[in-house]
């Protein structure tokens, strides 16, 4: 290959390269490519932080049966161990980190005059009852989000019922406790509300049922 031909070949490569560059430049001027800021396809759970699922409040077992078999003395011991660092329980006892708790069951939320309650607790409507105390003592931060009571809660259902039974015992105005019978878990043969068991013979009249009354007179004059 002569030098002339080499020059030709070199020139051809150079021209092609320049043409290629120019094409890129002109193309870039004519068309304005946009880089996507976000992926056009959104796949749930990829890339973005997963949406926080609203924590469903844990359903507690009915308090009534637990309260019916609760042990007040054990509840008092637990309260001494778990609560006494912040609360007093005697009538007229002073408030510490937490308010005095004498008579709290049946009293309004934030029942101690002058205690610096959080808006979260003070804003709860109605007076305390056993079921509210149950929710509260299970998880204070869930019952009153933003509460100042720095206490995780009592997860054991019977222990919590024992503490509530103790609080009842120092609350002269406590409302009636929830029913001791769990509605769904009625043992066989039990007679809730005095209704006779369904196994009764059909021929026997039901206790308390009205005596068989004569049928309505068929020959009543039509009006
Ligand atoms: C670390 C301190 C602390 C501990 C431990 C604690 N509490 Fe409290 N408690 C508080 C504070 C503070 C408040 C007021 C909360 C607010 O205003 O949000 C409070 C409020 C309460 C209330 C509501 C009083 C009212 O007047 O409405 C009850 C009931 C209660 N506590 C029961 C208990 C029981 C029962 C225990 C033990 C199982 C316990 N607390 C453990 C600090 C504590």
Architecture overview:
The protein is mostly helical. The chain has a domain at 63-169: Cytochrome c-like domain (Cytochrome Bc1 Complex, Chain D, domain 2, Orthogonal Bundle). The protein has seven helices and no strands. It is rod-shaped. Mean pLDDT is 80; it is low at 193-217.
The CATH architecture designation of the domain at 63-169 is: Orthogonal Bundle
Mean pLDDT: 80
Number of contiguous helices: 7
Tell me how many strands there are: 0
Indicate the overall shape. rod-shaped
Within CATH, the superfamily of the domain at 63-169 carries the name Cytochrome c-like domain
Query: What would you report as the Rg, rounded to the nearest angstrom?
Result: 39 Å
Largest sheet: none
Summarize, please.
By secondary structure, the chain is an all-alpha fold.
